[in-house]
Specification:
The complex is a heterodimer. By secondary structure, chain A is mostly helical. Chain A has helices at 2-11, 13-49, 88-96, 98-101, 114-126; strands spanning 79-80, 84-85. In chain A, helix 2 crosses helix 5 and helix 3 (88-96) packs across helix 5 (114-126). A two-stranded antiparallel ribbon of chain B has the order 1-2. In chain B, helix 11 crosses helix 13 (280-292). The longest helix of chain B has 29 residues, at 2-30. Chain B is flat and about 80 Å long. Classes of the chains: A mainly alpha, B mainly alpha.
Chain lengths: 127, 293
């Protein structure tokens, strides 16, 4: 009798499959939830800063400005603002103080701190 | 019985179809239907097929190419000297325009920064050594040593990370070190006017298109109606008409756009966009096209 129950728990493939599937489901569900929460943070920061009033930005509904260039495919771009190689550090520099890099540029200093600039840069380069 | 007949007729139809296809292919070639003129673009499907064929052909032949550690290769002096003597004339450099003769080439030679960013060291080495048939790219295998090939490859991999000022400095330093007096890279003095020289029957829009093609604008910018591979060196110009600023520094007016195309460095001293010595009439034609499309 004891042996039988042991056998049952060990060799029921349907139960095991069910357990595996529900485990995977939980994994995927929570993973996508946390990803989403993170992305939402970046998105709301970009919305608050108001990047979208001048730029079209993929993944941000209200961002459809035409004052500056579109920021779609940003990770493929070779240069930033036509003056700097497109690296993470350069992008952060540019976001923090565009006037320092191109005096007279229409891109304003948005008063970002370094951490915020890094979040925005990673959004653009990872999208 | 009826089944065998239907298979027979099917085979006959297929045979006729094949013969018609073969004869129309021969006719297409023999009657000169495809225009080989360099001033006319390839159609996008033809361009795409050629591009895929080139990429695949190169990828299949990379075996046995083992790049050395590119960080240890002398690109700062030898690499840049080789590049300035043999390559910049067609491919340009950060802030440096290609020579005017190369602007008439079809397909347009790729922008240096794009090649460095997109292609692997092995691919670059192969193309430099072997050249590419019918593209104008010569093979250098019998002119460069193996070491020299890698010096140019190393430079190309560094180019996308250089500003125009950095490139200028590097070039000056390289040539000072070997006391080469002049750098042969200035634009030729004789002006070329493309838009007005083209046949009088071409429409205004066509004039602009011809000018954009002839100054190789499509090697750095994605432009509607200009056949080229996708490029992200400069910004896409698809929505330039709705944009408020040019290069982020000039209000977007017709006049400003014409001026900027002709002398980008005058309005933005640190820009990577080179001065291509665009004639006034050509710049006007380009702007007409850009603002209307």
């Amino acid at each position: 009798m004891k042996d039988d129950t042991l056998k049952e728990t060990r060799f029921d493939p349907i139960k095991q499959l069910g357990a595996l599937l529900s485990f995977l489901f939980v994994l995927v569900f929570f993973n996508s939830q946390s990803e989403k929460a993170y992305a939402n943070d970046k998105v709301s920061l970009i919305k608050n800063v108001g990047c979208g009033s001048c730029h079209h930005i993929p993944g941000i509904d209200s961002a459809n400005g035409r004052v500056g260039p579109s920021l779609s495919n940003y990770q493929k771009r070779i240069y930033i603002a036509g003056v700097l190689p497109n690296t993470f550090n350069n992008l952060v520099e540019w976001l923090l103080d565009p006037q320092k890099i191109t005096p007279g540029t229409a891109m304003p200093d948005s008063g970002l701190n370094k951490e915020q600039a890094e979040i925005i840069a990673s959004y653009l380069l990872d999208y | 019985m009826s089944r065998t007949v239907s298979i027979k007729t099917l085979l006959i139809f297929m045979l006729i179809g094949c013969i018609v296809a073969i004869f129309s292919a021969i006719g297409f070639v023999y009657f000169g239907i495809y225009n080989v003129a360099a001033v006319e673009q390839h159609t996008q499907p033809v361009y795409d097929v050629l591009e895929i064929a080139r990429k695949r052909s190169i990828r299949m032949r990379l075996e046995g190419i083992h790049p050395p550690d590119l960080e240890k290769i002398d690109y700062q002096v030898s690499g840049i000297q080789l590049y300035e003597h043999n390559c910049v004339q067609c491919h340009g450099a950060p802030g440096v325009a290609p020579d005017s003769f190369s602007l008439g080439m079809m397909p347009a030679p790729s922008a240096a920064a794009k090649m460095g960013a997109v292609r692997s060291p092995e691919e670059l080495y192969w193309v430099i050594a072997n050249g590419v048939k019918m593209s104008g790219m010569p093979g250098w295998a019998f002119r460069f040593s193996k070491q020299e090939h890698w010096q140019v490859v190393a430079l190309l991999k560094h180019l996308p990370n250089m500003t125009s000022a950095e490139y200028r400095q590097l070039r000056e330093k390289a040539f000072l070190m070997t006391e080469h007096a002049t750098v042969t890279n200035g634009q030729s003095e004789d002006k070329v006017i493309i838009a007005s020289e083209s046949s009088e029957r071409v429409t205004r829009a066509e004039q602009g298109k011809i000018a954009l093609i002839q100054y190789n604008c499509g090697t750095c910018h994605n432009i509607l109606g200009i056949t080229a591979s996708e490029t992200y060196v400069g910004p896409g110009l698809e929505h330039i008409a709705q944009q408020s600023f040019i290069a982020g520094v000039l209000p977007n007016t017709r006049k400003n756009l014409i001026e900027f195309i002709r002398k980008p460095e005058k309005f933005k001293s640190n820009t990577l966009m080179p001065n291509l010595s665009v004639d006034k009439e050509d710049a006007e034609a380009m702007v007409n096209y850009l603002l209307e499309h």
